């Protein structure tokens, strides 16, 4: 649902080029940089604080930020269940380190939602 909301906002404001696969960096363009900051702000302000801490890097462009988020949620399908579980466990430990632990039930739900169709029987 978050992605649909973000894609709607991005489309309504005509800034799809900032998240497009054929992204072109306009580092010297002031207006481009301003829009980049606005869209980054939309993303950061719509994320839960504990997730925001995992993705927030000051120098990221919207394109790289969008790719980071997308990879966190869609790249799991190319991994074995063991690799995916290990990655999720590292994230959970990281959240504990910053005093934002997930309870076991939420962790299981996140794990199951992240499995792709190859693992539908396990899911």
UniProtKB/TrEMBL annotation:
PANTHER family: COPIA-LIKE POLYPROTEIN_RETROTRANSPOSON (PTHR47481:SF41), PTHR47481. It comes from Lolium multiflorum. It comes from the Eukaryota. This is Uncharacterized protein.
């Amino acid at each position: 649902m978050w992605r649909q909301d973000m894609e709607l906002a991005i489309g309504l404001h005509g800034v799809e080029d900032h998240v497009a696969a054929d992204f072109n960096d306009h580092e010297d363009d002031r207006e481009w940089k301003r829009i980049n900051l606005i869209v980054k702000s939309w993303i950061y302000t719509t994320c839960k604080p504990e997730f925001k801490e995992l993705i927030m890097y000051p120098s990221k462009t919207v394109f790289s930020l969008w790719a980071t988020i997308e990879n966190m949620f869609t790249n799991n399908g190319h991994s074995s269940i063991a690799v995916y579980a290990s990655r999720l466990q590292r994230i959970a430990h990281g959240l504990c380190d910053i005093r934002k632990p997930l309870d076991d039930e939420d962790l299981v739900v996140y794990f199951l939602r992240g499995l792709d169709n190859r693992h539908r029987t396990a899911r």
